[in-house]
């Protein structure tokens, strides 16, 4: 029979291994947010089942992989809206959102105002106007 501390050590090692894989998934989302990503592909890349990835990611980072991806896209969109000369539809495409309607809904949900209103309210002086 194994010593009880071996089981605890093995569980701790598994948690560290899972956390390393979760960090790689998060880093991939941060790098590739503008590309089409889905939980199944992320899980496959991490060597985890999609449900397991979703549960562990939420425990580690406080939101699902999809919610993290959406927040990353909206975060990047706010920068493009304020400091770029792209229109809202172009910003939507640049950050990898599947459609302008989804982009508008998620942006409004996370920021509190639609993308166009956000740009108008927070526009940096001296930059080109909307097209």
Automatic annotation (TrEMBL):
Residues 23-121 form the HTH araC/xylS-type domain. Keywords: DNA-binding, Transcription, Transcription regulation. Transmembrane segments: none annotated. This is AraC family transcriptional regulator.
